[in-house]
């Protein structure tokens, strides 16, 4: 399942949407009710600028796993793109409560607050994003292999 989803995200980063959709279909055949599948399906719709469909996919992912930060981040962005700034703010604040060390969450929250005209809190969020980014490792420590001599 994970390899298909990783391939789908790779194809999305290369703007190869049909290949990403094919990988997503393979993952769906394995485990259709995964929040990771809903999240990746949302990414496909987001890439195609189908924001309402993407919002629904991210919402489904959060319904399955309310603690999935990436789904919450993208759900907040979809609310922002669709003009529902208050829901965007609420969703991103929820994400920040769950993981206060996510610079992307703070940055997106800053963008939403800026669009609401709350420049003081927006700049605070942007500053927090910069501070948090400097203390986060480039790669999660769990991906670094442990060697014994």
Keywords, please?
mainly alpha; 149 residues; globular; repeat; TPR-like_helical_dom_sf; Serine Threonine Protein Phosphatase 5, Tetratricopeptide repeat; signal; TPR repeat
Secondary structure elements and pairings:
Elements: H1 2-13, H2 17-30, H3 35-47, H4 51-64, H5 69-81, H6 85-98, H7 103-115, H8 119-135
Helix pairs in contact: 1-2, 1-3, 2-3, 3-4, 3-5, 4-5, 5-6, 5-7, 6-7, 7-8
Q: What is the residue-averaged pLDDT?
A: 93
- Low-confidence parts, pLDDT < 50 over ≥5 residues? none
Biggest pleated sheet? none
- The tally of domains stands at 1
Overview of the molecule:
This protein has 149 residues and is mostly helical. The chain has one domain: Serine Threonine Protein Phosphatase 5, Tetratricopeptide repeat, CATH 1.25.40.10. The chain is 74% helix and 0% strand. It has eight helices and no strands. The longest helix has 17 residues, at 119-135. The protein starts with a helix and ends in a 14-residue tail after the last helix.
Q: What's this, in brief?
A:
The chain is mainly α and 149 residues long. It has helices at residues 2-13, 17-30, 35-47, 51-64, 69-81, 85-98, 103-115, 119-135.
